[in-house]
Design a protein that fits this description.
Blueprint lengths: L1 H17 L1 E11 L11 E11 L7 E4 L2 E4 L7 H19 L5 E5 L6 E3 L7 H11 L3 E14 L10 E13 L4 E14 L17 H17 L5 E11 L3 H12 L2 H9 L8 H16 L3 H17 L3 H26 L1
Parallel strand pairs: 2-5, 2-6, 2-7, 3-7
Antiparallel strand pairs: 1-10, 3-4, 7-8, 8-9
Length: 340
């Protein structure tokens, strides 16, 4: 009995001091960031035509460190660029075939400004959606942009960029509530180099107005991505205590052979294995997530948390808690995907 206790002590010390933690990259399919009601078929796109009081540089640009007045700007440049932004948003939504009809109403609100964005008039929103038979309103609350050029060697086109700042909102007229308000900043950069940094002779870069139009389209396209499911690369963590079975399990993990990895980890998942069981159960949670069995993965994490609490292992508890939040969020996302 003393000899057995001695080896369990050695095992526990080895696990604590030599356990290696590694990241495991995976791709997960996530629903759109915006939780649109399932009954939405027709949508309206509007512009609030709002400008913050200090947003006064629409007819200016920066040439290195000098602020210059643009020449030949159309007076309605705000309206033009807002239209490019909304049209690109509509095009991307249409291409996904998610909605039956998409209406664009750029002049529901007259141009106005102030230190603070005023609250939306839901009576106006309800009137608009009733008359147009639409179910949802996507609003470009405010839109700003700025073009800059930078010094280059003689004969080389000046590098340039456009920074856009937009605030978007999604309104549910039936519930009279805001589903989302989102601020987004995008930067589009041009120079005469290729992807490897090599100068390309005779490269033509877009002039200011063209660059502003392209950047406005990109702002609309980027916001549209919040409505669609997509793949996202994320990382998970697993542990390798200094035991042959865990090292062998890692080889199975690398090959995606989760059944054999599970078989090895389960050997150490019982309470009698003490802190070693924390590592085994945590790894088992990862394995079952990879097998798309999120309920079992959450159960193994809860079991790992119980032992970690018994041993008052703060680092393990922190790691387990973080993974629990990730799995619970993923479970909600899967349920949303299945309901679409």
């Amino acid at each position: 009995m003393k000899r057995l206790t001695f080896w369990f002590l050695v095992l526990a010390l080895a696990t604590t001091s030599c356990t290696v933690y590694k990241e495991y990259p995976i791709d997960v399919y996530k629903p759109g960031a915006i939780n649109v009601p399932v009954n939405v078929e027709n949508i309206a796109l509007i512009s609030r035509n709002f400008k913050y009081s200090n947003d006064t540089l629409q007819h200016y640009f920066k040439d290195d460190n000098l602020l210059r007045k643009a020449k030949g700007d159309p007076e309605n440049i705000d309206s033009i660029l807002t239209s490019f932004c909304l049209n690109e948003l509509a095009l991307n939504l249409k291409n996904k075939n998610v909605y039956n009809r998409i209406h664009i109403f750029p002049e529901v609100f007259k141009p106005h400004s102030g230190p603070k964005l005023p609250a939306i008039d839901f009576d106006l929103i309800n009137k608009l959606t009733t008359e147009t038979e639409t179910d949802l309103v996507i609003s470009l609350e405010t839109f700003s942009y700025f073009f800059s050029e930078y010094t280059a060697e003689p004969g080389v086109p000046k590098p340039r960029d456009v920074i856009t700042a937009s605030v978007w909102a999604v309104y549910d007229p039936a519930a009279k509530k805001i589903i989302e308000r989102k601020s987004m900043i995008d930067t589009l950069f041009w120079n005469a180099n290729d992807a490897n940094g090599n100068y390309q002779k005779n490269t033509k870069l877009p002039p200011r107005l063209t660059a502003l139009k392209i950047a406005s389209q990109m702002a609309g396209e980027n916001y549209s991505k919040r409505f669609f499911a997509s793949w996202e690369s994320v990382k998970r963590m697993y542990s390798i205590p200094p035991l042959p079975d865990f090292e062998a399990a890692e080889k199975y993990l690398v090959k995606g052979d989760w059944d054999n990895a599970i078989m090895l980890w389960k050997r150490y998942a019982a309470d009698k294995n003490g802190k070693m069981a924390i590592n085994a159960r945590y790894n088992l949670a990862l394995a079952y997530e990879m097998k798309d069995d999120l309920d079992t993965a959450i159960q193994w994490l809860t079991a790992a948390q119980q032992i970690a609490a018994d041993y008052r292992s703060k680092e393990d508890l922190k790691r387990i808690s973080a993974y629990q939040k990730v799995l619970m969020q993923r479970k909600r996302e899967v349920e949303r995907l299945n309901s679409i």
